Amino acid sequence: MTKFADLNLSPALLKAVNRMGFEEATPIQAKTIPLSMAGKDLIGQAQTGTGKTAAFGIPLIEKIDVKSPHVQGIIIAPTRELAIQVSEELYKIGMDARVKVLAVYGGSDIQRQIRALKKGPHIIVGTPGRILDHINRRTLKLGNVHTLILDEADEMLNMGFIEDIEAILETVPEDRQTLLFSATMPEPIRRIAERFMKSPETVRVQAKEMTVPLIEQFFVKVPEKEKFDVLARLIDVQSPELAIVFGRTKRRVDELSNALTLRGYTAEGIHGDLSQAKRLSVLKKFKEGKVDVLVATDVAARGLDISGVTHVYNYDIPQDPESYVHRIGRTGRAGKEGMAITFVSPREMGYLRIVEQTTKKRMQPMRPPTWDEALEGQQRITMEKLEETIKEGNLDEYKAVANELLKEHEDALTVIAAALKVLTKEPDKTPVHITEERPLPQKRDNYKGSGGHGHGGGGNRNRRGKSGQQPYKGNRKPQRRPSGRRP
Ligand SMILES: Nc1ncnc2c1ncn2[C@@H]1O[C@H](COP(=O)(O)OP(=O)(O)OP(=O)(O)O)[C@@H](O)[C@H]1O
Ligand SMILES: [Mg+2]
């Protein structure tokens, strides 16, 4: 175990890290911070939720000359929300050292960003498009940058972003230090990455599996038509504290969040067609617990660190294994437990196997809950609420009414049963409309494109028995937060 005090950090940094409640460095931090402080280029790969942000953030902050008014470090992230989050974490790390961090991202007032850029930020965190925009307007100059970091590096070097990244790189001095971080790093992308780096060192936190062991992984084989009812029942039975449901398309996300709302859940959707203000407000409500279920496209799959996410549901199996790893990694962060449930239509089973090959982890089959089980789940929640209320006391104003009721109806059992029924959110059968998505094209287990952990050694995995269906874990997360409040 490595203490931050053993990492040669300045007093200001140690103070910040302490205040953030970090006691020990995580393995990726312990391995990369010294290398990074020594100026090495590196590719850091470690599981989701294991502190990669601070792993690149701490050494970067250490290297900032706060007396200089120039931008010295630039971090590029694939989504606006992630850019904001990373800038917030860096702000916290650099607060005592008085390092100025600024996030620049699309969909928000560019004039305001330009004014902020004039105030001499030391570190810029941004999305590629907006960074380029500022470079072209000459409102952002990267001539004094000594450190460039790609968070979610494999995504940033993927087809959609590569040109922007190349254009940005052209304006950054060549003798810079380049750091790449991600939970996944497919081999072809690593090769692209090395073109931008000087004899980079690869630091991989060796784990048996690419996913976090604290995330229990299940799959439910379910025909497209039945997916929604199964989702609703699973939520009823498992009563997640906060849940993210991933859908394949924007339409899917809209339909699912509407349908969940119709059935009485507090759900909202987030995807790239929404205004930035809306995206941020949905996320804020989710973080505050005012929304229990966030329905999202992959725009929310990478990097977002939201505490309290206990369940991730893949309404549609993701097309590639990396996307799976990042999606389920929204739970089970920083040492907490989580559960991931992936829906697979019978024709898409090939994709499931491909995911398993990459992650080196088998998903356990889960049987969809029945209506009765969903009801039981909800009744349990009511009982828990009741018990809590009894414990809290303060019931005098209700006892007179209770007495009246008991006088009218001799049978106390009936009275209590009725009260329970009123309080329970019964599994709902309100009809909803979800457009059927076509299954992904059929695929056999011959996927070779991904990994970085090597492929093909599938022979020694446990065989999954046909009857090995596991019950969902109905009793794991007993308390559901009263909606709207969060401890
Ligand atoms: N040393 C530490 N001790 C305790 N908590 C930490 C430590 N380092 C980071 N954390 C916290 O762990 C959480 C996850 O960190 P972070 O978001 O950096 O993970 P990540 O590895 O980047 O994950 P992802 O691959 O999903 O982007 C954050 O809330 C962060 O503040
Ligand atoms: Mg991250």
From TrEMBL:
Q: Where is this region: Disordered?
A: 429-487
Instruction: Give the Gly residues compositional bias ranges.
Output: 449-460
Q: Where is the composition biased (Basic and acidic residues)?
A: 429-447
Q: Name the EC number(s).
A: 3.6.4.13
Question: Position of motif Q motif?
Answer: 2-30
Record's Gene Ontology CC terms?
A: cytosol; ribosome
Kindly give the Pfam families that the UniProt entry links to this protein: DEAD, DeaD_dimer, Helicase_C
Q: Which residues form the DEAD-box RNA helicase Q domain?
A: 2-30
Q: Which InterPro entries match?
A: DEAD/DEAH_box_helicase_dom, DEAD/DEAH_RhlB, DEAD_box_RNA_helicases, DeaD_dimer, DEAD_helicase_CshA, Helicase_ATP-bd, Helicase_C-like, P-loop_NTPase
What Gene Ontology terms for biological process does this UniProt record contain? response to cold; RNA catabolic process
The protein's UniProt keywords, in alphabetical order, are: ATP-binding, Cytoplasm, Helicase, Hydrolase, Nucleotide-binding, RNA-binding, Stress response
Q: Which PANTHER family match?
A: DEAD-BOX ATP-DEPENDENT RNA HELICASE 47, MITOCHONDRIAL, DEAD-BOX ATP-DEPENDENT RNA HELICASE CSHA
Spell out the family assignment given in the record's similarity comment. Answer: Belongs to the DEAD box helicase family. CshA subfamily.
User: What is known about its subunit structure?
Assistant: Oligomerizes, may be a member of the RNA degradosome.
What is the name of the protein in this document? DEAD-box ATP-dependent RNA helicase CshA
The organism encoding this protein is: Lederbergia citri
From the UniProt record, report the name of the gene that encodes this protein: cshA
